Amino acid sequence: MTSSYDERTVARLIHDDLAHLLHPQHYAPDHQDPIIFDRGEGVWLTDVRGRRYIDGLASLWNVAVGHGRAELAEVAAEQLRKLAFTTAYTGFSNVPAIELAGKVLDLAYPNMGGVFFTNSGSESNEGAFKAARFYWNLKGRPSKVKLIARERAYHGGTLAASAMTGLPVFWKYFGPLVPEIVHTRKPDNLECDCTLNADGECAHWVEAAIEREGADTVAAVICEPVKGAGGVLPPSDEYFVRLREICDRHEVLLIADEVITGFGRTGHWFALQRWGVNPDLMSVAKAITSAYIPMGAFIVSQPIMDALHDLPPDARFMHAYTNSAHPGAAAVALRNLQIFEDEKLVSNAGAMGVRLASGIRRALGAHPHVTNIRSLGLMAGVTLVKDAERGTPYDPADGIGGKVARHMRQEGGVITRFVGDHVVFAPPLVVNASEVDLIVDALERAVRAVTGA
Ligand SMILES: Cc1ncc(COP(=O)(O)O)c(C=O)c1O
To answer: What is the residue with the minimal CA distance to atom 8 of ligand 1?
Structure first.
């Protein structure tokens, strides 16, 4: 372990971090000894004390090509020297953004027709929602304004995206939430033959919400193909096929929030390709640049694009972000996607995902405190329970997920995330077999140490 910082400097950094920096989803007194990262290479991160960790969640599901890619820094420097920024508003454009829009459309669903660049996943979801409402107004259906979102979904931190999010912990003290965004719930007396998703729902929950609200009032449904922050909860194989049919039948647009699943995470470029389903709009961010520079996008189908190209004189799509279509971010995204192709990262994600899931099943499939081992592509989750046979959960006060994650970090050198009793994994798409095995080993040792079984 070599450190570029002496202990006095580390102590000063920790003090200043606690004193000055407001972190996302963080309560400073709970984090008196934060890990302060200094550098990264591949799936490995090094902190200011020189300790190395495997980045088991690709940081925030986003550093797809891994850390330390000098060529992405170089391409950014080259583009910023040449042209750091110009507006893409009203009549102006730039070369990398034009090239990137074409590239993204080549990779995305075949029905997609236009790309609007943003700075984040939250902005992408806000824009997709606004585009859906705008579209229905153009079609002479102004009553179609509501958005249906799902329980346990995460869609971001801006006000409408927080309202879309189906995790109440993100709402407390921020109300009133944005109106006309409603969540699914288990319908009364539901009789259907659906296979349930990992969180126990099926597509008819959405249909029940559409019927409850009235299809005439509903603009769109928004879904993460795999709920990520909710605990890595994959759908059944039929879920999105049925949901597509339900949306068509009720004339409701389907927005796929592919902020996590987009760009290879599931072993396909985009998640719904697995089931041959095309959404009407999609949101992306994170892996589009592997987070080397912030960027996102919402992408609209050709019919929506056509409608936006044929506006009545009194209507303009007055949606904007200053940094939309940023040339530096676009140049990085283009090179990032080139790395995906050169190194066949999408198929590596599929192969390493299989190894990760089967490794976890082999190590912990019969463990008395582990249940619901699930995965899709290179996303996996496990649930810790007091009694796997009876399905008895731990008391939330036990903080079992946090204990396992802490053990993995401190003893196993693997950083990942827990959500309540769920521990989740999504390493960079460049992860190799021996690194996957290190993650599995750290998880197994942590579960055995913490549960004592
Ligand atoms: C599925 C999903 N949608 C949207 C977002 C919000 O993205 P951002 O934090 O870039 O605004 C996230 C963030 O994790 C996400 O997981």
So the answer is: 121
Assess contact for 266 and 349: CB atoms under 8 A: yes
Over residues 428-434, the mean pLDDT reads 98
- What is the residue with the minimal CA distance to atom 7 of ligand 1? 121
- How many angstroms separate the alpha carbon of residue 263 from the centre of ligand 1? 14
pLDDT band at 51 (very low <50, low <70, confident <90, very high): very high
CATH level 3 topology of 71-342: Aspartate Aminotransferase; domain 2 (3.40.640)
Of 61, 259, 286, the one to substitute when testing ligand 1's pocket (max ligand atoms within 8 A of C-beta) is 259
Q: Ligand 1 pocket, 417 CB below 6 A? A: no
- CA of 450 from ligand 1 middle (Å) equals 31
Question: pLDDT per residue over 57-76, tens digit each?
Answer: 999 999 999 999 999 999 99
Could you read off the pLDDT of 257-276 as tens digits, one per residue?
Answer: 999 999 999 999 999 999 99
Q: Where in the chain is CATH 3.40.640.10?
A: 71-342
Q: How far apart are the first and last CA of the chain?
A: 32
pLDDT of residue 72: 98
Please tell me the predicted confidence (pLDDT) of residue 29. 86
* CB of 285 shorter than 6 A to ligand 1: yes
Q: How confident is the model at residue 1 (pLDDT cuts 50, 70, 90)?
A: low
Q: What is the mean pLDDT of residues 315-328?
A: 97
Contact yes or no for 143/216 (Cβ under 8 A)? yes
Q: Which 3 state secondary structure label does DSSP give 80?
A: helix
Question: Which pairs with CB-CB distance under 8 Å and at least 24 residues apart come from 386-395?
Answer: 393/421, 394/421
Domain 35-65+344-451 architecture: Alpha-Beta Complex (3.90)
How far is ligand 1, taken at its centre, from the CA of residue 259, in Å?
6
Whether residue 64 contacts residue 264, with contact meaning beta carbons closer than 8 Å, is answered with yes
Q: Is 203 left (phi over 0), alpha (psi -120 to 50) or beta?
A: alpha
